[in-house]
């Protein structure tokens, strides 16, 4: 091949590749650590072209130790588009970082603490006074903090050393304990032949998310489709990496291996991380709001953070998408205060008004979805006709125009959103007129259409032989067809069907449909471009499922195909004649049979009435007995004042709780709760007020209970709360939250807002196998007395020695 031709081909190929790269959206991902299998999904999505397939070109920014505490701020500031975050990402959100979690890859954190067997650190008691080598970021993770705290190891009990990331420091006794990942540290110790202990939070009930993929609210507001595409392609990359571990390890070993990790270490890491990614789920990237709330509650209990989080905004949910707005859009809506919309008042079942002036119709369901996601009201402006609505939109008396189609005239004062509603236009005529297959044959026929509808231009241009006549409304047009003033009327299938079913049944028929589908969105005043951007985002958030659900349940009529009605009437006449002859013969036989059956029926009726009377009496008596039994049970097992169960019920029910705990090896805890200084309430305000305070107190406790919890009035102002499936540490958390809730909800004594403050002391005990109810309660009761001795309004526990 001549050199000049070869050069041309190479230049052309380079030009095409450069052009393709320029078409891709350039995005960045900040890793949370150095290159290893922990980021395999992103590597493989890049290697296999998954990002390119969705129009993205990814740059993975290398990790540096000095930025590890600033990554969330880099994302918030827009210096990187996406990042991988550890389990403490939730704290970044609580500290007002405007970030969005797209998924959580690991369903439990791989972070753990390790010791060598030779150190004789085999239990948490052995941690006291020891040295722990860890990073600042690892030390902040709630999984480690909760595991240590639940075993009474406080921060002051340990000496913290900066992490050198050299496992030999643990072997050579330069530290007693070391933090590391279960996907790496065990392999390093096994290779060196060192027996070790693993203290993993997952094994102690603290299975918290890790390795979140997250971005900023601002990126979501401006690039929602790209964020969704990146999320999808990344999960596809992870799926591929876990399904093809050997291939993935080979690629990482060759191309993404700045730490010079061996293949055996990468294979070990891959298998360990795959288990964490699919822990208790067959789906990658699951992110459950309740589990995140539990994580944040742990931070609060540990005193790390006291802020609050709107989890609906923090968690990306494709089934219920949040409206992500730019700072300019938020400012616009804040200044705008409300949005108004004009509709077609005579276009049911899509839009209309009822007798009270309320907006009704199919389209209200879409608008209600928008209202839930908008921070300001969306109000409907009352008009009398579509023509008036168009005039109002032009005069800026309304910001939006409902279900409007684009025309050149309307572009002078409106912009138009994406479309989201599609329907078929049909022709309505009298029943005796033929079905219309070709609308070009309607030469000089007068066809009605509602004045101001954009479809008029389409009909006039496509079928110039049709004479289009303006009518005021759909009903007006159908009236004129029924009276013979018009040959036919054109409008949406569902709209004409709405009237045909009630007002013109048998008078009119649908006798033709147009092949072209009409697609409608919203008209938006064109002097407010940010409003168009906001409503396009709202429409983009509509799922196909929700659109289909709303439109399908409102379908009302199908068009009638061409048919020979004269032949049908003759066939019906013949069939009816045959049926009439058959019926006459049968009626003669039936008369004879009826006379015989009448006497049998009389006797049968008498027997049935007697039987029904007896059955009714038995049923009434049975109901009375059952009602009496229920009343007796309530008297026996319920506290008359508060309505909760009493001590008698606790004694009987405790046997079931103990059996369940023993059989299933599940924890069971008990709170004994005493209202502090309750006698003073009775002495100061009387027993009637005291009773009201008790009822108020019980109602507040009930708001915090789960379905399986059992609340019992044990006596006076003492209550017992049984917590199945909760261990001692979890019960302490429940008790503390309950104590805080009661303290924050005093009893309002009168209309002058005089309050009776309520506090409680709580003793917490955990069931031990073989405990009697007295032993179980006694342990919690001892803890209650400790709480009282220490000043009340607190939670205490005494573990069984």
**Quaternary organisation:** single chain
**Second-tier CATH architecture of the largest domain:** 3-Layer(aba) Sandwich
CATH topology name of the largest domain: D-Maltodextrin-Binding Protein, domain 2
CATH C-level of the largest domain: Alpha Beta
Tell me the major beta sheet: 9 strands, mixed
| Mean pLDDT over the full residue set | 87
Structural overview:
By secondary structure, the protein is α/β, with parallel strands linked by helices. It has 5 domains: 3-108 and 209-314, Periplasmic binding protein-like II (D-Maltodextrin-Binding Protein, domain 2), CATH 3.40.190.10; 111-204, Periplasmic binding protein-like II (D-Maltodextrin-Binding Protein, domain 2); 327-563, D-Maltodextrin-Binding Protein, domain 2 (3-Layer(aba) Sandwich); 564-637; 645-797, 2-Layer Sandwich (Alpha-Beta Plaits). The chain is built from 28 helices and 30 strands. Strands 11, 15, 16, 17, 18, 19, 20, 21 and 22 form a 9-stranded mixed β-sheet that branches. A hairpin with a 5-residue loop joins strand 13 (351-353) and strand 14 (359-360). Helix 2 (40-47) crosses helix 10 and helix 15 (327-336) packs across helix 21 (529-540). It starts with a helix and ends with a strand.
Secondary structure blueprint with pairings:
Blueprint: H1 3-23, E1 25-30, H2 40-47, H3 50-53, E2 56-61, H4 71-76, E3 82-85, H5 89-94, E4 99-106, E5 111-116, E6 131-134, H6 136-139, H7 142-150, E7 159-162, H8 168-171, E8 177-181, H9 185-191, E9 196-199, E10 210-216, H10 217-243, H11 245-255, H12 263-277, H13 289-301, H14 311-314, H15 327-336, E11 339-342, E12 346-347, E13 351-353, E14 359-360, H16 363-373, E15 378-381, H17 386-394, E16 400-404, E17 414-416, E18 421-429, E19 446-450, H18 455-462, E20 467-471, H19 474-482, E21 488-492, H20 493-502, E22 509-525, H21 529-540, H22 544-552, H23 565-637, E23 645-646, H24 647-664, E24 668-675, H25 678-685, H26 687-702, E25 710-715, E26 718-724, H27 728-743, E27 747-748, E28 755-756, E29 760-766, H28 773-789, E30 795-797
Parallel strand pairs: 1-2, 1-3, 6-7, 6-8, 11-15, 11-16, 19-20, 19-21, 23-25, 29-30
Antiparallel strand pairs: 3-10, 4-10, 5-8, 5-9, 12-13, 13-14, 16-22, 17-22, 18-21, 18-22, 24-26, 24-29, 25-26, 27-28
Helix pairs in contact: 2-10, 11-12, 15-21, 25-26
